[in-house]
Hints:
Mean pLDDT: 85
Largest sheet: 7 strands, antiparallel
Low-confidence stretches: 31-37
Distance between the termini: 29 Å
Number of strands: 11
Helix content: 10-25%
Structural class: alpha+beta
Shape: elongated
Strand content: 25-35%
Oligomer: single chain
Amino acid sequence: DMRRVGNLRMNIAYTLQFAEGTGSNASTTARGGNFSSGILGNFIAAGIPNMRISNVLDYDSRHNIVTSLDYRYGKGEGRINGKPILENTGVNFIFRARSGEPYTKFRQPTRTNNLIDGGINGSRLGWHFGLDMRLDRDIDMNKLFSGKSISEAKRPVMLNAFVLIQNLLNIKDILAVDGFTGRPDDDGYMASPQGQLDIQTQVNPQSFVDYYNMTLWNHNNINFPRRINVGLQLNF
């Protein structure tokens, strides 16, 4: 944590975690469900007792780095041509990076066969990166309307105007993938022999393909694109 030196302040946080256990959530041992949940559930349904297998949990992100950089002008600072045009104005950047979460790799499309390729949660996503920016300015409402500074006013009122840009670089970050293809938008079933056979038996093959592809889309698999927020915050 670097305290403010001049106009700059910076903070860097690093977290190292090892998340392992017999279940990532309350339904892990239920039959069916998602990748690792269905596998353990089928073991228990088969009558195999005392299943206590420790695996990497679904949310195990080993490395997590968050960096905050704030550059700000105080009262009377930020002069341009001798005028404090940028006083009480600052910009803040937050950079986030974390290693990818685990997922279970399969040898065939999950609709046809659940043969594991490797171990439960034996594969991992790539690293995640993100950058947010906030540009803001404090406006002394007392001085604006009454001519008194914030230190002279009995009830100081400050208005903060800001522009917040999330995912500044508009990075397409993959948050989850299919266990067979390793992609967020394709499970490989349509290209498989069983999928091709199912397509040929449909009344309208192209319609079947289109509707099936629509069911594959999950907004939770990819992060949001760049978002720009403009707002006012009143402090009194």
